[in-house]
User: What shape does this take?
Amino acid sequence: MAKVKIITDSGCDISKEDESRYNIDIMCFDITLGNRTLVERQTVTNKEFYELIDKSDDLPKTSQITTFRFEEKFKECVNEGWDDVIVVLINSAGSHTYANAVQAEQNLRNEGLTGKTRFHIIDSHCYSLGYGYPVVEAARKLEAGQSCDMVLAFMEDWFNCCEIYIIGFNLRHMKKSGRISAAASFLGEMLSLKPVISLIDDETKVVKKSRGEKAAVVDAVQYINERMIPETPWHLLTTTAPEMEELFRKTMTKKAGYDLTMQEECGGVVACNAGPCFIGIIIKGKARR
Assistant: This one.
């Protein structure tokens, strides 16, 4: 049986338990906030980071994972004798990280340093559990004896269909960051309107506007269920709105007829752009590619 390794970046937001349980190699992003440099998953917890960005007037900035870091990581994989290395990375529309990984593999190949190791570098077109879920699921499939080709086919299908939604309860940080363009253009605070924002591939847009938080949850459940392929997994990304998170989970479970597959806290990379107060929902919709 071929030896297959999975590498991803810390924007995937999978738990440390799953990281350890399935021996997933996570390369962490650096985040700069004011005069401090933080390492996601290592030097600050998610909850601590929410507090930091909520109190700071500075915008946090993430540093892409460099070509050099990928070259060093890929050399390790070759030296360790891996047959296949699956590298699943954050949406290339929002980061040069994917391009850097591709360049690193090409550099090593040109120098004849890849040996017999095959590298499969994947642009997830997603954020957070949009690629965190299939990374964990891929590790489970490999553990169960599925081939690398079968796992790659599963990932391709998921990334062709994945849809991400945000229910924004406080848009101050989203607008300030400017990285979620739909939030920047949304005018609704004076009317207590809460948006449901879709993040699909490289496009963001407001798909629903609701008066109040509970109404936003109910409207989001209705809209998302119409988009989701029946009986496919759905996942929840949490921040600092436990009551609304629980309301969404109960309402969505009742509407869909089954509970979520994965629930995790939002990490620093996503919080840098979306802020510390929202709910994220990840589903499988119709194929786009």
Summary: The chain has eleven helices and 13 strands. The radius of gyration is 19 Å.
